[in-house]
Specification:
The complex is a heterodimer of chains A (about 180) and B (about 325). Chain A has about 180 residues and is an all-alpha fold. Chain A is built from eight helices and no strands. The radius of gyration of chain B is 25 Å and the shape is flat. Classes of the chains: A mainly alpha (about 180), B alpha+beta (about 325). Chain B: InterPro entries: DUF3137.
């Protein structure tokens, strides 16, 4: 009788620890995801200033600038899904990075302090977003491991916990950089 | 002859002048040691012959004389050692980089060493010397020899027995980091204690505000345990490229290194088992083997700035 009771108490305690652990890990995933969102917003906020500065010095980049502004407006609209936001961000990144390469043609713009500041902030935000994405993926992997490994896998199904997909690199970012494509833009 | 000496006439002249001083010091030290040796020898022979009083008396005279010789040469030895650091090491540093300077009496304070959080033990005895500082391009850095110890006390029948155990002995390297940081990231070698500690804080409970950072580079995760106050910031510091560079640096160091990134600085601890930048007494300065090792060590440390790409300032920090 006592043995059964001990086993039941042990099972009950294991259940509590396991459940709380999973909730903690799931919260970490949510937290990491919102961190990406905050950083994306920070990056989107850079766009208007960047466009303003570039506009003053360049005459031939209007099309790229219009495209960047349009993408930003879409990305900050509020009624889009997270997946769409990620795709828009990838497109926005590639457009801005293309613009940064073209800046080589405008020595005055390249030397402008505002532009240099914006450029470094942009690079910084890229690395911060990359770090936030890696944090998210690490949190997701830790959560997924807990619910997919034995004995967690038995309880996870009962408690309605499901695996979450990790963030993959956007198709545009995964492409190998081709110098030819960059300079033919 | 070593490459740094080949074209450096000033250093060659300094070494030639100091060699005279070294020979003087070495000859006197040798003389003192020989007299002490003779005294001890006479004592032993006398004792074997059963002449206790005469053995001690005859042995004591050369021993005392030997000690006097060693005491008399002590000041000259110290002056020679100081001059060596200032003139020889100082000159050799200029050859590596004109901005490098050495201050033999200065070091990294115990406060700064503790602040770097590279080791957890409470320090009971701390020694530091030979501060080398410089600036390569935009990155200023400094490093010094550090010996930190803690003590353990044991009660025995003869009273309390104190023994000193090393926390760290080697060189601590500090450089201005190229990114703004608000938290703390610590990278420690994956030994048994750190592995068990990290498993405990990851799976059971973390006693501090630092969490284990699980990084996606398997080689890095096999070699080091990483702790940080902010998950994202630690990854902002330890980018995939940075992790590869740290692994390369670790592979080229004699023993496993520890690193920390706090506020605007990075700290690296290189454990070493010999005392660096010391003047050789019984080894010629004209073919300086230990100087060559020292120069290679300094070069290795200065190259960290390039190896870790600290001069790339594109993240908003000048």
């Amino acid at each position: 009788m006592i043995i059964v009771l001990v086993i039941l108490i042990a099972l009950f305690l294991f259940g509590i620890f396991f459940y709380n652990g999973l909730i903690g890990k799931k919260n970490q995933v949510t937290n990491a995801f919102s961190a990406i969102d905050v950083m994306l917003k920070k990056r989107f906020d850079l766009i208007p200033n960047l466009v303003e500065v570039v506009k003053q010095y360049t005459t031939y980049e209007q099309e790229t600038l219009t495209k960047i502004v349009a993408l930003r407006t879409k990305a900050t609209a509020g009624n889009i899904s997270e997946a769409e936001k990620a795709t828009l961000d990838a497109q926005l990144s590639s457009s801005v990075n293309g613009l940064m390469v073209n800046v080589e043609n405008y020595p005055d713009l390249k030397a402008n302090t505002n532009f240099i500041n914006l450029q470094t902030t942009w690079t910084e935000s890229e690395e911060q977003i990359a770090a936030a994405r890696r944090t998210y993926n690490s949190a997701v992997t830790s959560y997924n491991n807990s619910i997919m490994m034995f004995p967690g896998s038995i309880f996870a199904g009962m408690l309605n916990f499901h695996p979450i997909a990790v963030l993959a690199t956007a198709e545009e970012e995964r492409k190998n950089i081709s110098a030819k494509d960059l300079f033919n833009n | 002859m070593q490459d740094f000496l080949a074209g450096n006439v000033a250093l060659q002249n300094t070494l030639a002048t100091m060699e005279v001083e070294r020979r003087k010091v070495a000859a006197e030290q040798k003389r003192g040691i020989i007299y002490i040796g003779i005294g001890i020898g006479v004592c032993i022979v006398g004792l074997l012959l059963g002449l206790l009083f005469w053995a001690v008396l005859a042995g004591l005279i050369p021993v005392i004389y030997g000690i006097i010789v060693l005491v008399k040469i002590r000041e000259a030895t110290k002056a020679y050692e100081r001059a060596y650091k200032q003139n020889v090491i100082g000159e050799a540093l200029k050859f590596i980089d004109p901005n490098l300077t050495i201050n033999p009496l200065d070091g990294i304070s115990s406060d700064e060493f503790s602040y770097a959080q590279l080791f957890n033990k409470q320090i009971d005895r701390y020694k530091t010397e030979d501060l080398v500082s410089g600036k390569i391009d935009k990155t200023s850095f400094y490093f010094a020899e550090v010996h930190a110890e803690y003590k353990t006390e044991r009660e025995t029948k003869d009273g309390t027995k104190t023994s000193w155990i090393d926390i760290f002995r080697g060189i601590v390297f500090v450089a201005d980091f190229n990114k703004h940081l608000s938290g703390v990231t610590i990278v420690k070698p994956k030994d048994l204690v750190n592995t068990v500690g990290s498993w405990f804080s990851k799976n059971i409970f973390s006693f501090s505000d630092q969490h284990v950072i699980q990084l996606e580079n398997p080689a890095f995760d096999r070699t080091f345990v990483t702790y940080g106050t902010h998950q994202i910031e630690s990854r902002y510091v330890l980018t995939p490229a940075m992790m590869e560079r740290i692994l390369y640096l670790n592979a080229n160091a004699l023993q496993s290194i520890s690193l920390s990134f706090i506020e605007s600085k990075m700290y690296i601890a290189f454990p070493l088992d010999r005392n660096y930048f010391e003047a050789p007494i019984f080894e010629s300065l004209l073919n300086p083997v230990s100087l060559n090792t020292d120069i290679n060590t300094i070069r290795f440390l200065c190259d960290i700035v390039k190896e870790l790409d600290l001069n790339t300032r594109i993240w908003g920090k000048e």
